[in-house]
Amino acid sequence: MRTRVFSGMQPTGNLHIGNYLGALKNWVRIQHDYECIFCIVDLHAVTVYQDPAALRAKILEIAALYLAAGIDPKDCSIMVQSAVPAHTELSWMLTCVTPLGWLERMTQFKAKSAKQESIGSGLLQYPVLMAADILLYQAGIVPVGEDQAQHLELTRDIAQRFNSLYGDTFVVPNTSLPTVAARVMGLDDPTQKMSKSATGLNHAVGLLDPPDKIRKTIMRATTDSNPAVDIPNAGPGVINLLSIYQAFSGATDEEIKAQFTGLRYGDLKKLVAEMVITHLEPFQQRYREITADPAYLAAILREGAERVAPIANDTVHTVKQRMGLYT
Ligand code: AQP
Question: What angle do CA 285, 290, 296 make, to 5 degrees?
C-alpha cells in the first residue's frame, strides 16, 4: 500500500509564488509516488470573517489552480474540507486531548491574533483542525512550506498524546519541506514571509498576475545597499530573489553562484521576472481552460470527497470506539 500524503491550502486571498514553491510544486512532484489527498481547507478560512460569495468563488479558484499546476485528479483526490463532516467531528475529539498552552504557543496564532480587534476562538483552534485533517487520513507525509512546520510538530504531539491515552490509533506524520524556497519572503519586506493576507502593493507575485504586473513587482523588490550580487554578503532581499530563481529554474547552488555573482541588481531582477513569467504563462493558460468548464471542476470535487469520505469515516468510528463514545 502506498503511503498516504495529505496537504491543503486555505481559499483566502490570492495564491502566490510562495504557496506554489513552498507547497504546490512539491505536490505535483510527488503525486504519483504516494496516495495523495489535496484539500481546499475552507473551514480554516472562516477562522477570520470571509464574505460568503467570495469564499464560494475562491474554493473553485483554488481547485482550478491545483489542476492548472498539474495535479492529476485521476491519481489524486482533490476535495473540499467542509464536504467531509468527519473533519469537524475529529477536530472536537482532538480538542479534548490538546492542552490550551500548546495552542497559545503557536507563532501563527500570536501573529494573526495581534492583527485582529476581536479574536475568534476558531483562530486558536486552527491547528487542532489541521491535525484532524491530517490524522483523519492516517497520512504519513505532509508536504508544506516552512511556516507550517510548527503546526505539523503540534499534529505529531496530538497524535502521540492520543495514542498514549487511548492506544495506537493514529499514524504520526512526517513533515516534508522543499529544499529550496521553503519560505519565500515578501518582495517589499524580505524579513516577513510572503503572505496572501499582506496588503503591500509590491509584496507578492500572484499566480494569476499578468506579466506586466509580475515585472513591476519584481523590479521594485527590496534588495540591499551592495551594488551587485555577492552571495556570501547578500542581504535577505537578494537571497530571496536568488532562491525564487533557483526554485523555478531547478539550477544548483553552483550554477546560481556562477550565473549571478557580480550581476547588478537591475539585471538580476530582470532575469528573475522573466523566469517567473515563463513558468506562470502556461499555468495561467491551463487555468483559463479549466475554469471555462465549471461542471468538470464540480465533478472533480464531488469525486474527491466521495473517494476520501470512507477513509475519514473509518477513522472517526475507530476514535469513537477508543474513547468510549456511542457508535
Ligand atoms: N511564503 C511562503 N513560502 C513558502 N511556502 C508558503 N506557504 C504559505 N506561504 C508561504 C505554504 O503554502 C501552503 C498553503 O498555505 P495556506 O493557504 O494554508 O495559508 P498560509 O500558510 O497561512 O499562507 P499565507 O499565504 O500566508 O496565507 P494567509 O496570509 O491567509 O495566512 C502551506 O503549505 C504553506 O506552508
Answer: 170
CA 19-20-23 angle, to 5 degrees, is 70
Which atom in ligand 1 lies closest to the alpha carbon of residue 13?
Answer: 30
The CATH number given to whatever domain includes residue 255 is: 1.10.240.10
> Is there an atom of ligand 1 within 6 Å of 13 CB?
yes
**184 Cβ inside 6 Å of ligand 1:** yes
**pLDDT, tens only, 44-80:** 999 999 999 999 999 999 999 999 999 999 999 999 9
Ligand 1 geometric centre to CA of 147 (Å): 7
- pTM as predicted: 0.96
127-171 pLDDT per residue, tens:
999 999 999 999 999 999 999 999 999 999 999 999 999 999 999
Q: Which domain holds residue 243?
A: 211-288
172 and 25 within one domain? yes
In a domain, 185, yes or no: no
Number of H helices, E strands in the chain: 14, 5
